[in-house]
Amino acid sequence: MKTVYHSADSRGKANHGWLKSNHTFSFAKYHNPERMNFGVLRVLNDDFVEGSMGFGRHPHRDMEIISIPLEGELRHGDNMGNSGIIKKGDIQVMSAGTGIMHSEENATEQPVKFLQIWIIPNKTDVTPRYDQVNIEENSVKNDFQQILSPNADDAGVWIHQDAWFNLAKFDKGFSKEYKINKSGNGVYAFVIKGKVKIGEQILDDRDGFGIWDAESFVMEAQENSEILLMEVPMQLPN
């Protein structure tokens, strides 16, 4: 088993007034050659947006973009005619493919917090696509809840990549083994809140931990915790 540990305070930081962001991997003006990606996981941004502010319409291409609200509400709009609100308990996905224009704005006067995640796809120039689903209604305690996969008929949303995302809401003292879905994949664990132990590594709020060259690992909650597990291919597409 190989691992990499990223403490919360080691992340790149950006403060634009209306937007405060922590970058696990190189993004915008934060560039760290040792923190470019974890396999095909290219971006993991922990964003805070002030009330009624947001990202105006802008383009993306050939990227799978996932948003997971943690607090508040985001208003989405795009050039495919999609519009609406995503909030805590939802997950949103966009396949940018041949090109998409979209905006994400805080829908209320209260701050919004969300995770913005980019995955490098296994195919390019696909038809752009948008989807969002509620994941709270199928929420489980002390188990892994799948919220993303490569398969359209699976639980959660799907993307153009052999990736599986799971949420884990563990009570203090609970432990469970996670088994890798596909050989050659690794898992990046991000602690949304709480404290967990993987192997000998203790992870606190907003810490990240990558595991690869393994078939499985055990995660134990040291406190009541919520963790996002992102299983992705470690080999970048040609």
From TrEMBL:
Q: What is the lineage of its organism?
A: Bacteria, Pseudomonadati, Bacteroidota, Flavobacteriia, Flavobacteriales
Q: Which residues form the Pirin N-terminal domain?
A: 11-119
Q: What is this protein called?
A: Pirin family protein
Q: Keyword set for this entry?
A: Iron, Metal-binding
- Molecular function (GO) terms listed? metal ion binding
Cofactors required = Fe cation
The entry's Fe cation-binding residues are 58, 60, 102, 104
Under InterPro entries, the record lists: Pirin, Pirin_N_dom, Quercetinase_C, RmlC-like_jellyroll, RmlC_Cupin_sf
Q: Any binding details for the cofactor?
A: Binds 1 Fe cation per subunit.
User: Where on the tree of life does the source sit, at the highest rank?
Assistant: Bacteria
Q: Which family does it belong to?
A: Belongs to the pirin family.
**Where do the Quercetin 2,3-dioxygenase C-terminal cupin domain residues begin and end?**
147-232
